[in-house]
Amino acid sequence: MNLRNFKTSNPVFNGYFWKEDISSSKTMSVAGIFIKSMIGIIIIATITAYLWKLSEEGMRMRWFTLGGMLGSVVICIVISVRKHWAHFLVPLYVVAKGFFLGGFSSYAHKNFPELPYQAIGVTIVTFFVMLILYQLQIIVVSKKLRSVIIAATISIMVVYLVSFILNYFGIKTYIWGTSWFAIAFNVVTAIVATFALLLDFDYIERYKGRAPKYKEWLATWGLFATLIWLYIEVLRLMQKLAIRF
Question: Global pTM?
């Protein structure tokens, strides 16, 4: 099976990352991805804790959040065209996401101190539940399921993009705020992000021991993209519920 024929809902797991012939004796392993992921989590947690401290001291987090978001976007684009640089670009991506998440979640931490920890807990539990469901084959990643998740993910990204553009021109959309429609949208996006994990698990399972070793960084990048998306959606949902009730 040609690696380039396999697709996933996660944009960083596209087939073009796997086109080259494998010449190295070392190949991608689950252990390697796990270690890199744990190091990344520690880095993000450290940056986030530091930004929360600055926020409590009165420093505005807007520029940290915006800078982290723009930085991560630029790094993603560079990785997409220079995948062999992933071994040092992915750590930079993790740092940028640390600033983004630290700034983004500082509001919740300041006004609802327990919410970020609860969102982290929900994200971790969701990750392991989906991993168990996948490993036990209770949920099988079929072609139909893959297509549905990909279509749903693309649709959500388009909605967010259009919403950001409209907000730039001062037009507010219904996906923000605390209305029941906005809450329902958050619930749907969180569910889609949850199922996107299944596709990432399936992709790693298919190509562990086959892809070059350096592509562990790309796999780690993909997992972080999905997990961070899930965490953001969970935190936003909890914030809306906390404000409304």
Answer: 0.84
